[in-house]
Specification:
Layout (H helix, E strand, L loop, with lengths): L15 H14 L3 E7 L3 E6 L4 H10 L5 E9 L34 E8 L6 E8 L5 E3 L8 H12 L2 E3 L25 H5 L19 H10 L1
Parallel strand pairs: 2-5, 6-7
Antiparallel strand pairs: 1-2, 3-4, 4-5
């Protein structure tokens, strides 16, 4: 094989715009950035230290042009001890790992806060993430950065049991005040799904004609009757 026949290695895809944006965040936050990931042409994820969570939101808004708040929520990375709702209840449950594995940019805790922001000028989006300590289940509020975070944090407090320190009014949105437990935690038993299978698991009725005997079989059955 000549040198001209050797396979040509393709250069890795670059996203200079998002790499430049990441560099700006790094210049502002320094070692408060724990991990990051650029998916060329698609997205940018940045995980920051827990104590820098509020500051990251402020910098994104005031210095980097991310004025549009999309949403804020919490992820519970614990694999469900009850399996998946779509598992067939008539079959033995498949074996699944119980190891907690965080997604893009990794993590050190079971729960993570994450928020989606957009720059309305160039329409660039970013996802900011931060670990929520397992022992306190507490992280700073973003209400002072984005007023729209108020409702999102109330929902996460109600459904995941995460306290947003500094939030002015953590109270229920959906559940009655005496409700016990946090329905979006993976270890919260959804009794309706235990008693009754997931609605996607149903016995499909045969299409007309599927079970009708062939003409010869029908004649033979009639002769035997």
């Amino acid at each position: 094989m000549s040198s001209t026949d050797a396979p040509v290695e393709e250069a890795p895809v670059r996203d200079e715009a998002r790499e430049a944006l990441l560099a700006r965040f790094e210049a502002e936050l320094g070692d408060a950035i724990v991990a990051s990931h650029v998916l060329a042409g698609r997205d940018l994820w940045i995980r920051v230290r827990t104590d820098a969570w509020a500051e990251a939101g402020r910098i994104a808004r005031d210095r980097l042009g991310f004025d549009y708040f999309c949403f804020l929520s919490v992820i519970d990375w614990l694999p469900s001890p009850y399996g998946r709702g779509e598992d067939d209840p008539t079959e033995p449950p498949p074996e699944r790992s119980t190891e907690i594995v965080q997604g893009v940019t990794g993590g050190d805790t079971r729960f993570q806060a994450f928020a989606r922001l957009t720059n309305p000028v160039d329409h660039t989006g970013i996802t900011l993430k931060a670990d929520i300590p397992d022992d306190t289940a507490t992280i700073a509020t973003w209400v002072q950065n984005y007023a729209g975070a108020n409702w999102h944090e109330r929902e996460a407090w109600e459904m995941f049991g995460i306290t947003f320190e500094g939030h002015p009014d953590l109270r229920h949105i959906y559940l009655p005040g005496e409700f016990e437990g946090f329905p979006l935690r993976k270890d919260f038993p959804l009794l309706a799904r235990i008693v009754k299978p997931w609605p996607g698991i149903v016995d499909v009725e045969p299409m007309p004609g599927d079970d009708e005997p062939a003409e010869g079989e029908a004649a033979a059955a009639e002769a035997d009757s």
